[in-house]
Fold this protein.
Amino acid sequence: MSALPAPPEAASAVPRPALRVRAMGVDDLDAVVAIENAVYPFPWSRGNFADSLAAGYDAWVFEAADAAPPALLGYAVVMWIPDEVHLLNLSVAAAMQRRGIGRAMLEWLMRDARRRGARAMMLEVRPSNLVAIALYRSTGFEQIGVRRRYYPAPRGAREDAWVMSRKLDDE
């Protein structure tokens, strides 16, 4: 388990709670799926998360460090590819978005991956997800490609995915 201190906040900003990080377990899946269903129009299923755990992917939950019992604020799933990581899912509970939690989670994931030997992180993002794209760009990710018709979209359509990458050995 790891704790992330909350940074000093501007007077007008909503403060970000201090975060505690721990490995996701099967007992977390109900809460994780509830958040997933609330924040995505095409969410991962419980089976997707269970399969990720069974496959040995890194799966993390981020909790409010000062809540008793700890409140689940977000989660992430990362797949290792020899010396790089692929961020498969990074999600923040709807009521806690726009408080810097996603940034803190992403920064923790990058530090952890770098510490464990990863040289880069890659991900896919919907071009329509402007908030996520802004976060990724502001943390050094660059678009390196497009996966055509990657994501499901309304009315049976498909949406492209932007492939983004960031070197981790540059700090």
